[in-house]
Every structure is written in C-alpha cells, then in structure tokens.
Amino acid sequence: MLQSLDRTHTAEFQPSTLVELLRWRANKQPDRHGYTFLINGKTESAPLSYGELDRQARAIAALLQKHQAQGERALLLYPQGLEVIAAFCGCLYAGTIAIPVPPPESGRLKRTLPRLRAIVKDARAAFVLTTAGILELVANVRDEFPEFESMQWIDTTQIDLALAEQWQDPKVDKDQLAYLQYTSGSTSTPKGVMLTHFNLIHHCGYLQKACGYDAESVSITWMPYFHDYGLVEGMMVPLYNGTPCYVMSPFSFIKRPLQWLQNVSKYRGTHSQAPNFAYDLCIRRIKPKQLKELDLSSWQAAGNAAEPINPKVMSEFVETFAPCGFRWEAFSPSYGLAENTLLATTSPRGTKPVLLPIKTSAIEQNKVVVADSAETDGVRIVPGCGQKVCYMKIAIVDPNTMTRCPDDGVGEIWLSDPSVAQGYWKRPDVTKETFCAYLQDTQEGPFLRTGDLGFMHDGELFITGRIKDLIIIRGTNHYPQDIEWSVQQLHPAFRPDYGAAFSIQDRGEERLVVVQEVERRTENLDTEKLIADIRQEIAEQHEIQVYAIILGKPGNILKTASGKIQRRACRDKFMAGTLNVLVDWCENPELTANFRSLHGELESLAEQITTAKM
C-alpha cells in the first residue's frame, strides 16, 4: 500500500487516479526527488521534484483547457526525457486522452512518419504536444502529410508556468480514458488500446506489491515512454511509489550498453527492466576490463519481458556479471501486454528464475512432459515468466474448443482482472473478439484473449509462442524463436536476435523458411558450409527439413519498438523478393531465382527513379 513507502506520511491514502496522487505528493512532499534525466546517458539534468512536476502539469493542462481539449486526443511526440513525463501528467490533469508515440527521427523520416500518420488517422488526434526540435524536423515534411495541418501543435517547453494558477480541476472520473497505448504491431496493424485512469492507478498498485518495491527503491529506465514497459513500470510506478527514477535515452543504451549498468551501479538502482536483447547486448559489448568498475549488488529486480526470453542469455549474463555482484535471484522474468496495462506475471523479488526442461516431442503436440534433469536429447529448456501479479486470473484455453486445457496442456493465455483495458479505439468487432471471450462450457468470463500460447506449472507461467507465428508442419507445432536460436548459435557471424523463421505454402504444403542476418564487416565466410550447417542443425534439433534459407545483410529483420521480431513483415518481404540477400538456398531453385530477379528489377527501378530526381 502507498503508506508503506511514504517515510513522511503514515495515514492511509488510496487515490483513484494519478491526478489525485500527484496533487497529494505536490502538497505533502513538494521537494521530494521524482525524476532525473541522464543526458547522453550520464550527465544529470536538474532533478524534477513532485512540486515542480505538478506545476508543469497544471500549466500544460491549463493551456489545453483554453483549447477545450477535454476528451480530445493529444499525441505526445518527444525525445526521451522529463518533458514527456510532464506532458503525460498534463494530459491527465486536463482530461485529455494522451497518445505516447515514437518521435520522428532525423534521417529516418520516411520510415517513421507513415506509422505516425496511421495513428493520427486512427485516433483522430486534435493536438500534438512536442518540442521545438521536433517541430522543426516535421516542418520539412508537413506538406506531404495534410493530416498534420489539422492538428494544434504545442511546444510545451515554451509554456508559461504562471498558467498553472489558471488550472481548473476537471474532476476526472476514474473510469474515463486516460491514454491510448498503440500496440507494437509485431503480428498486425497497430491498434489503440484504451486505458482508463483506474486501469493505470490500479496496475501501479499491483506492480508496487508484485515487483517488491519499498521505501529504498531506486528505478533506472531507458525503455521508451511510448512502450508500455517504459511508460508504466519505468516512469509511472516510481511516481506511485514516491521513489526516485533516473531516465536514460534508449539511444544512449544502444550506443553504449555499459552506461546502463554504470548507472545501476552509480545510483544503487534496485529496479530496472529491459527486453531479452538488452541483456544479450551487454554480454557481447561490455569488455572484461570494464567489469571492474561495476557494482550491481543493489539490483533486486532485473525485469526481462517484452519479447521471448532466452534462458541461455540469462545464464551468460549471470556468469558474466556475477563478479560485479549480480545474482540469479535478481533476474525477474515477466510476461505482459498493453491490453492488460502491463504485466500479468512476474517473478517475486529474491527468487531464482525457473528453467523447466520439457520434452520437445510432447510440446509439439500441445502437451507438457517434464524431462528428467539428466536428459538432454529431445529436451527444450523453457524459462518461467513468474507467478500471477496479485489477483490476476489466468486461464489456459484451447483456442479451438474455447475450453480450459488439462493441467499438462498448452493453450492460449486468457486474462481477467481490473487491469484489463477497455478495448481497442473505434474497433468494436475486434474489441469484442479480443476482450469479451467466454469459456464455452462454463460461460466464465469475460476474458482477454492474449494471442500468446503457454502453460502453467506449479504456479509459474511459461510462454511457448504466438498463435499467429506458430509454424505447423505435418500436424506438428514448431515455435519460431526456438529455430532462430538454434541457427544463431552456429556461427558468430549470425546476428543474435536478428533472424526470422516462418512458413510459406508451396505446392499445397507448409514449408519452413529461415532468414538470418549476417554481421557487418564479416569476411571470408564459407557460405556453402553455413547453409549446410543450418540445414543439419534444424533437422537434428527440430526434426523438420528447411525449405529455404536466406543469409542477408543487416536491415532485413524488422522489429517493433520493444524489439519483437516482425516475422510476418519478413515473410512478406521474402514473398515479394525484396530481401537484401547475401546468399540463399532453396529446395525449389526456381523460387529463389524468381525472387532474385524481382529484387533486381526493383533495385533497378529505384535507381532509375533516383537518377530522374537528380
């Protein structure tokens, strides 16, 4: 409960919205350290106190109220920093529905703006809250995006803070929409998840308890604000707890992973979260001599979620950073999704992650058979994603019969809890299908259908894959991440987490295709041997034949904002012949020959267009 974290106030206080909470903190704890932004990953900004955050939020809200923005949608378009936290709170204070979205990037406008344009159209956003730098960047392309002209653009860094005195409390009801969290689009077009003020405050309370926060907790986050992991646990949970939060840019982390761990060490961070790829990047990029400067003994909950968890990466991270004080018990594998505000399961603080050996032949038939610890052949190690968060209800359901699976069965994960969102913005049919599921035999519900496959064992949730990504060949299930991991361990030239396995139909049969990126500046590769090794490894480990293998340059594998592989997008590029191929092999040579021909024609056409413009 809140009072357990507040060292200066012991009376029970249960806010129904974050507006009530921040107003309370501003009155009772105005000078308490809320947030610090680490410029370039290391230089501290001036700390943002709760009193100052409240003042900035009220000023932003007062300006929005002048524009009658209550109930309207406002895009939050910012570089990572403290400005976006103030803007998000300002929207909550005004009763305006916030939409955190990825900011356009200089040099990548053509890639980032189409998704932004789609969100603007879908949400019918009326306002954009942003900074002068992004305003200048977007000004160069506004003629190409007429939707931008219909919106009111506001540089919140230039708002007169004296406006805070003009703010009128909108008396926001807890059941009103607070924000739209657009899904990452790993398997479908992004959709706006509708989250209420109660969804957010309720889930923050859940995470406070389930993730083991206390009065001494310190959060370090580089997860982007437009991703649910970064927004909810990264930025909002520290506000709920009343504990300090240090914010990094995702670019600072990608550029120098060591800086993340240095900040955990410097600020004695207790809670910091990231997807699996981030831990792998630390293993590969941090040099042995740099370990001496790290002290990770304060890290109590290293959250690992947002993409498939590789048990090998966890083991190697512990082995690498144990001399720095990192412990197995600090790892906190979790599972969640935006449609549930954030987490459905997480590992209790101070407990070791669960790695369960199961028989591959059984899991391929949707059954769970735990292997003996001494067995190695035909065994898959599945990492647990923790136990249910507080009172979350989890059902493992056969997606075909819509009934519960037996205890040893693999099925779709269904959730029921007040954390579950209200549905998808302006999509009643998809909302009904996804958020209003009932068990066929008992009519228990409604449940949220996650689209993820998994099973429960001894109270622990295990994820096996996505329904839409599942590869089914000759009636047997194969999970793409398992095949991808098998390939990537064969040679250091294969980029970790940059491969995609999927199936296509050829002559009426489902056939397996593997696309794998090769590291830049890799020379003298025996590609014929690599292709042969991949075919042999998949045949031996997964007992299926590969139909086509593509080794490509970096840039072929598209990912979502959180790092999830967009396998369907990769499949579409394969089918369209637009992959950037280094070498390929196919059981049907005519297929890849046609793809290479089409790719060559497209490159030639692109060159002609470029020449014509010059």
Please provide a written account of the structure.
This protein has 614 residues and is α/β, with parallel strands linked by helices. Among the domains are: 2-249, Rossmann fold, CATH 3.40.50; 471-613, ANL, C-terminal domain (GMP Synthetase, Chain A, domain 3), CATH 3.30.300. Helix content is 33%, strand content 24%. It is built from 18 helices and 29 strands. Strands 1, 2, 3, 10 and 11 form a five-stranded mixed beta sheet that branches. Helix 2 (50-66) packs across helix 3. The radius of gyration is 25 Å and the shape is globular. Residues 7-11 and 594-614 have low confidence and may be disordered.
Question: What are the key terms here?
Answer:
five-stranded mixed sheet; GMP Synthetase, Chain A, domain 3; 24% strand; alpha/beta; 614 residues; Rossmann fold; 29 strands; globular
In a few lines, what is going on in this structure?
The chain is an alpha/beta fold and 614 residues long.
Lay out the secondary structure.
Blueprint lengths: L17 H11 L4 E7 L3 E2 L3 E2 H17 L6 E5 L4 H13 L2 E4 L8 H15 L3 E4 L1 H8 L6 H4 L2 E4 L21 E6 L9 E5 H14 L8 E3 L6 H14 L3 E3 L2 H6 L1 H10 L4 E4 L1 H10 L15 E4 L6 H11 L9 E6 L6 E4 L8 E5 H4 L15 E5 L3 E2 L4 E6 L4 E2 L6 E6 L11 H8 L12 E10 L2 E7 L4 E3 L2 E3 L1 H9 L5 E13 L2 E10 L8 H16 L3 E7 L14 H10 L4 E6 L2 H25 L1
Parallel strand pairs: 1-11, 4-5, 4-6, 6-7, 10-11, 12-13, 13-14, 27-28
Antiparallel strand pairs: 1-2, 1-3, 8-9, 14-15, 15-18, 16-17, 19-20, 19-21, 21-22, 22-23, 24-25, 26-27, 28-29
